[in-house]
Design brief:
Elements: E1 6-11, H1 22-30, E2 33-37, E3 52-56, H2 61-73, E4 78-82, H3 92-102, E5 109-113, H4 118-126, E6 127-128, E7 134-138, H5 146-158, E8 162-166, H6 176-185, E9 193-198, E10 206-211, E11 224-228, E12 234-236, E13 239-241
Parallel strand pairs: 1-4, 1-5, 2-3, 2-4, 6-13, 7-8
Antiparallel strand pairs: 8-11, 9-10, 9-11, 12-13
Helix pairs in contact: 2-3
């Protein structure tokens, strides 16, 4: 009986080699077959030289998962690669769903290898905007109905979560980012700090700090992440800081002496 190989589902990080994890590098070294979107291979060409590289276009994610599982079941050690973290809008869920649908019940050895996500990378460039509870919402409605996205945006805004907005705008989806801004302004001050990062840890990187009321869609695209602060987030020089806790009721906290951004309590906007 043919021995099954090992299937690594690997997050390559945001782009820079320095931001790849040691586990990701080791998984690439051990694998004979690499499966992924063609655009991922340019940055790792030296790491996959001499290996069998199977590149599929965008939109073929399920086929990538099927192919990776098939090759691993036939005895190859395989890497299915994603940008960022494989478990955050990446290939890990599709690989496990493919195994589940085929009834393999994890009799194939699968290792999900973590990577630095776009959210982590952009937050680091902005300072510390994710110091307290936060939510991540993709504005792409290709796989999720827009009405669900709107509901999640409204709920997260009213609950005073810091919000990381992924996939904010593309040539075919040019209105969703502006609509998200309108939804957030229902319960957030226009002066709420916002960090907009494009091409994090890649050539052409840009980092901008603005406000919810003034943020513009002009330079926003699929390589951009926007992080919208909560009622406690403030700007500190060229950084954003979200304190790890809210001021304790009934006492004076050092945080209570610092200026907030036009809000006296979470999710309450002052006109």
């Amino acid at each position: 009986m043919t021995r099954s190989g090992t299937l690594f589902v690997v997050g390559l990080g945001p782009g820079a080699r320095a931001a790849m994890t040691g586990q990701a590098l080791e998984a690439l070294r051990r694998s004979r077959v690499i499966v992924g979107y063609g655009g991922y291979f340019g940055g790792i060409a030296d790491l996959v030289d001499g290996k069998e590289c199977l590149a599929l276009p965008l939109g073929e994610e399920r086929e990538r998962a099927r192919l990776a599982v098939e090759r691993a079941l036939n005895g190859d050690d395989v890497c299915a690669i994603s940008s960022g973290d494989a478990g955050i809008y990446g290939m890990a869920s599709l690989v496990l769903e493919t195994l589940e649908a085929a009834g393999h019940n994890l009799d194939l050895e699968v290792a999900v290898v973590p990577g630095v996500s776009a959210v982590n990378a952009c937050a680091a460039l902005l300072g510390a905007p994710l110091g307290h509870d936060f939510a991540v919402v993709s504005l792409s409605d290709l796989l999720t109905p827009w009405k669900w996205i709107e509901g999640r945006l409204a709920a997260a805004a009213e609950a005073d979560f810091v919000l990381a907005l992924l996939n904010p705008r593309s040539p075919r989806r040019d209105w969703q980012f502006r609509r998200a801004q309108e939804i957030l302004l229902r319960s957030r001050s226009p002066e709420t700090p916002v960090g907009i990062v494009r091409q994090a840890y890649r050539p052409g990187q840009s980092v901008e700090i603005t406000t919810l009321g003034r943020m513009s869609a002009a330079t926003v695209d699929m390589f951009t992440t926007a992080i919208v602060g909560n009622s406690q987030t403030r700007r500190f020089g060229d950084k954003l800081v979200t304190p790890r806790g809210y001021p304790a009721s009934g006492g004076v906290s050092p945080l209570s002496l610092l200026p907030l951004r036009g809000l006296t309590s979470p999710a309450r906007r002052i006109s």
